[in-house]
Amino acid sequence: MFFCRSVRVGRKILSENFKKDLKNKKIYITIIAALIVAIGALSAVLIYNNINSQPAVPTKGVVGEVRTDWDTGIDENSKGSDNTKKTGVQIPGYSTAEMIAGDTSLHISIGNPKSNTCGLYATLRLSDGTVLYKSDLLEPGSGLTDVPLSKSLEKGEYQAMVLYECVTLDDSHQKLNSAESEFTLKVK
What we know:
Layout: H1 2-52, H2 79-87, E1 96-99, E2 105-111, E3 119-126, E4 131-134, E5 143-148, E6 156-167, E7 175-187
Parallel strand pairs: 1-7
Antiparallel strand pairs: 2-5, 3-4, 3-6, 6-7
């Protein structure tokens, strides 16, 4: 009988140790799983930031030079441009632009498509009203792709817009109408 009691006591001790070990294993597995998830999330953030931290496109050409052979990137021979000639003024549109913090120029295409029959003045400004650039008269087919800025910007995202003011091409430059093209300016 003594032997049976010792076996029962041994099984009881064995059973309690097994439960403690199993509980400890569950804790270790939970900690390891949490670490794997945290490492995965950190890796995803680092990869995302690395992809989005590629340098902005450097400027090309002469900053501030208004060219008379400015290319809008629009197929002027398409049906859409024929319809636009009949219905109104074309203006360039933007969704985003990028630049490097501290730069005093922005690579963005500002100009007057050659299909227009009016002149344009373009003003680049931030949503807080800060004017970064104001053009001279842009005749049809003239524009620039490297815009000189009145000030440099710090890293961040800014809401910006180009205000296009339409005027007649005669000597009076009588105001006709205006249009705004809003975009996000990313400064890296």
